[in-house]
Amino acid sequence: MNDILKNLRNSKMLLGEVYFWTDTVKDWKHLLLNEDFKEIIISQLQWLVSRNLIKIYAYVIMPNHLHFIWSMLEKNGKEMPHASFNKWTSSNFLKLLREENSPDLKFFIEKTSERNHRFWQRDPLAILMNTKRKFEQKLNYIHLNPLQEKWNLVKEPEDYIWSSANYYKTGKDELNILTHYMELF
Q: How confident is the model at residue 5 (pLDDT cuts 50, 70, 90)?
């Protein structure tokens, strides 16, 4: 029970702490099958890293969700970087769906006082990575995610280009967004 309460509190991420973070597309729609949406995600990560607002230790972008191990370093104005990430990606998802005149746009309509569309489910999962063992378990989980029978996206983790697995195998960070996790330990 204490772990559940700790995880709920951790959904309010703290600056300087490292978290395993999961964000899911609303209603588990496979919006992220389209590589243009993945590029939007990568672009925002690059922007946040280049401004020293976040550090990313691992990531995977799946068809309907994503996992990061990351740290919020500084606020982006008044908001936490993960909020900026969700806001900016959502805005650009909406723009792209409108440009494509996509029938999928209807799945993301949500009329509230705050917004007209929602792309990310509420309350992403944030788990504090406070031990090396926990970190490495989540790192392996992230890199093996594309190989799960449900997805079967690639044969080897490093073959999935929307993941940090190849970085941990080769040391090459072609996107310039990653920090090796051993810097933490």
A: very low
